[in-house]
Design brief:
alpha/beta; ABC transporter transmembrane region fold; Rossmann fold; six-stranded mixed β-sheet; 19 helices; 64% helix; elongated; disordered N terminus
Length: 598
């Protein structure tokens, strides 16, 4: 049954805390616990070796700080020093190799899950959202997963571990003053970094929102390239796009200014801490309590800590940004499916099915009802045509049968099975549709026809093209079936796209056929050629024809005339003409139009 509705993704995203994002990510990492632990072990090994480097350097300096005649080259210490530095790099790179698969696989699996979920959402969601914005959210969220894992597990945690180890060595080897200076520096650095970064996050969010809106505007404008040209509105589109870019510019400038403030404060904190540590170490050397090697060791540890500390602010900032991007990605998963399979939904098995609409009521908006108690039946292998003025609810019948939406009242059955009790996949597998507005993939003609049944052979694709009377046109093209159709099929004419759509539906070989204004884009000659083929392929299939041109449905078993969401007339062509009602008036009007054109 349909869900209560679909909550906006943005609202879900902003309501999710950072910990909630991390908690939602953890189950995706469970299969890779072994790799994660191995990578962490390599990081610990690298940090331990890194801890030994300044110690080796201290002993080297102390050994060299003797009279020249007593100088003996400490080969073992030199080897240990060099080996430690090589080991640090070795273990760090091994960690990268071990963990690379985890980051890439987790990002791939979550992004794929979101992609599948987006396809599972109802038509309502996609009509209300801008494709460019959704695509941008998915792209940023997918890349943020790897960034979050890398920064958190292998940058922030190892840095914290290194700080702990260095502090321990300083306390063990010297006195508490060194550790206190180190910890005070770290505390001040952390407070400054976190507070300023939290403040800056609002500007990053603003920049992200502006970037998404700009991307939506650009994609929408480029998809409607022809319309822009028809009305000579290039400058208008550029102004609207620039409005979004200006918002992005302002947000980015604020983000950059606050980043400068963050960096300045971090530098000042570290500079004070390093100065205090060096003063304390220098005083110890002057007093004779510390050696030159001790001074070098303290300095080396400070340099060793200052680099990750400088990075720590960037790490925290990147983590916050990654979490923000993942909020939006997981927010898409929060959107509930408006049309869902009920538990225990059965698959549809039908060869010559019977289709019934029983007192069907439906509205896209609760304030305006589209269908008002529509009832009719399509017998097994029969053809029912629906005609009516624009907005009468004709195409809505096809959308409901295909379960793009669920009915608000009444029911639709196939072989006496309520479609809501059947799996969506099996219902849609049994239906082939040629829509009024044919949109093709930006790929080859062959791909677009084969899309009806991806496992079909080339011979089957060509047979379907012949049946749709487009094969000769295709082979006459320089690239034949490999001809690219362009974005949304714009390289083909309306009639050519319609024939590709007909071939695609024929290749699917469905038990139920829906023609939604299937020949609306064809000229009279092409329509006559294809209509005969459509009549032939309808034989043995349960067919719903939604038509504008009444001449194409004269032979239908039954014709329904709709007005304002209700069936006002029903019968065969001759019977409806004899009634001299709405259908007869439509017929006379179209005949006059045809005579005027002739």
């Amino acid at each position: 049954m349909g869900a209560a509705g679909e909550a906006p993704a943005n609202k879900s995203a902003t309501a999710r805390s950072d910990m909630a994002v991390i908690a939602e990510l953890l189950p995706w990492l469970r299969p890779y616990v072994g790799r994660i632990l191995l990578a962490l072990g390599l990081i610990v090994a690298a940090k331990l070796l890194n801890l030994f480097v300044p110690i080796a350097l201290k002993h080297l300096v102390d050994r060299l700080n003797v009279a020249p005649d007593l100088l003996v080259l400490p080969v073992a210490l030199l080897i240990a020093y060099g080996g430690s530095r090589i080991g640090v790099t070795l273990f760090t790179e091994l960690r990268q190799i071990v963990f690379a698969r985890v980051m890439a696989r987790a990002s791939r699996e979550i992004t794929l899950r979101v992609f599948r979920h987006l396809h599972a959402l109802s038509l309502k969601f996609h009509l209300e959202r801008r494709t460019g914005g959704v695509a941008r959210d998915v792209e940023r969220g997918g890349s943020a997963i790897g960034e979050l894992l890398d920064w958190t597990l292998y940058s922030i945690l190892p840095t914290a571990l290194e700080v702990l180890m260095v502090t321990t060595v300083l306390v063990w080897s010297y006195d508490w003053s060194f550790a206190l200076i180190t910890l005070a520096t770290l505390f001040a650095y952390g407070v400054w970094t976190i507070s300023i970064t939290e403040w800056r996050t609002r500007y990053y969010r603003a920049a992200m929102e502006a970037n998404t809106r700009a991307n939506e505007r650009a994609v929408d404008s480029l998809l409607n390239y022809e319309t822009v040209k028809y009305f000579n509105n290039e400058a208008h589109e550029a102004r609207r796009y620039d409005d979004n870019l200006r918002q992005l510019e302002n947000a980015q400038v604020k983000s950059t200014k606050t980043l400068a403030l963050l960096n300045l404060g971090q530098t000042a904190v570290i500079a004070v801490g390093v100065t205090a540590m060096m003063w304390r170490a220098s005083a110890g050397v002057v007093a004779g309590k510390l050696t030159i090697g001790d001074l070098v060791l303290v300095n080396a540890y400070l340099l060793q800590l200052s680099a990750p500390l400088f990075l720590l602010g960037m790490m925290y900032r990147q983590v916050k940004q990654a979490l923000t991007n993942m909020e939006r990605l997981f927010g898409l998963l929060d959107v509930r499916q408006d049309v869902r399979d009920v538990p225990g939904a059965a698959p549809l098995i039908a060869a010559r099915p019977r289709v019934r609409f029983e007192e069907v009521r439906f509205s896209y908006d609760a304030r305006r009802e589209i269908l008002r108690g529509v009832s009719f039946e399509i017998p097994p292998g029969g053809t029912v045509a629906v005609v009516g003025h624009s907005g009468s609810g004709k195409s809505t019948l096809a959308r409901l049968l295909y379960r793009f939406y669920d009915v608000a009242g009444g029911r639709i059955t196939i072989d006496d099975h309520d479609v809501r009790a059947l799996t969506q996949a099996s219902v849609r597998a049994a239906i082939g549709i040629v829509p009024q507005d044919t949109v093709l993939f930006n790929d080859s003609i062959f791909y677009n026809i084969q899309y009806g049944r991806p496992t079909a052979s080339r011979a089957e694709v060509e047979d379907a093209a012949r049946a749709a009377h487009i094969h000769d046109f295709i082979v006459a093209l320089p690239d034949g079936y490999e001809t690219a159709v362009g974005e949304r099929g714009l390289k083909l004419s309306g009639g050519e796209k319609q024939r590709v759509a007909i071939a695609r539906a024929l290749l699917k070989n469905p038990a139920i056929l829906i023609f939604d204004e299937a020949t609306s884009a064809l000229d009279s000659k092409s329509e006559q050629a294809i209509q005969a083929e459509l009549d032939r392929i309808q034989i043995g299939r349960t067919t719903l024809v939604i038509a504008h041109r009444l001449s194409t449905i004269m032979d239908a078993d039954r014709i329904l005339v709709m007005e304002s969401g209700q069936i006002v007339e029903s019968g065969r062509h001759a019977e409806l003409l004899a009634q001299d009602g709405v259908y007869a008036q439509m017929w006379m009007l179209q005949q006059r139009e045809a005579e005027a054109v002739a």
